[in-house]
Write a structure and sequence with these properties.
alpha+beta; Chalcone isomerase
């Protein structure tokens, strides 16, 4: 059943139905995370890399990639080239009122980005991390947890958890 729920998220995401819950930065309100990462313009138009589900937080997630990231995923290129950007859209998972055995997106708690710049972010494996809650960057303490978690768990995959969905 989880496979069908994930597939539904991908289809809805690809159709653009799920994205309205996430912020779009304008020139007047661009805010940067402590790392300098901002909400990239046009991220809603990026392609789906893969969906995921995190049971410990009851979340459904969709990972999007810009053109550089998608080319690297398709070619299975590691490390990712500079300029690759990944977006993680997350929603609290709730049971569908029409079909209770299915989970659907609920509240969108945050959006996160990883930006590859091997020189600027050399101290964090070449990636800059940006987490935004209600369109505002999380504080430095929250951001300090990103790299250690990625480094501890996926250091052999250029610290990227997501794998390209076939």
């Amino acid at each position: 059943m989880h496979r069908y729920a994930s597939m539904a998220v991908v289809l809805l995401a690809a159709a653009g139905i799920l994205f309205p819950a996430f912020p779009v930065a304008t020139a007047a309100d661009i805010l940067a995370a402590p790392s300098g990462v901002t909400i990239p313009k046009g991220y809603r138009d990026w392609q789906v890399v893969a969906p995921s589900q995190r049971d410990d937080t009851d979340e459904i997630r969709v990972i999007l990639g810009n053109g550089i990231a998608m080319k690297a995923f398709r070619a299975n290129t590691l490390p990712f080239p500079d300029g690759a950007i990944l977006a993680k859209l997350a929603w609290k998972r709730v049971a569908s009122p029409e079909f209770p055995k299915t989970f659907i997106p609920g509240v969108a708690p945050r959006i996160e980005f990883m930006v590859k710049n091997s020189k600027k972010y050399a101290a964090t494996g070449g990636w800059g991390f940006g987490r935004f809650i209600d369109g505002k960057p999380a504080d430095e303490k929250v951001h300090a947890t990103c790299f250690p978690c990625h480094q501890a768990n996926v250091k052999d995959h250029d610290i990227v958890y997501t794998r390209y969905a076939p």
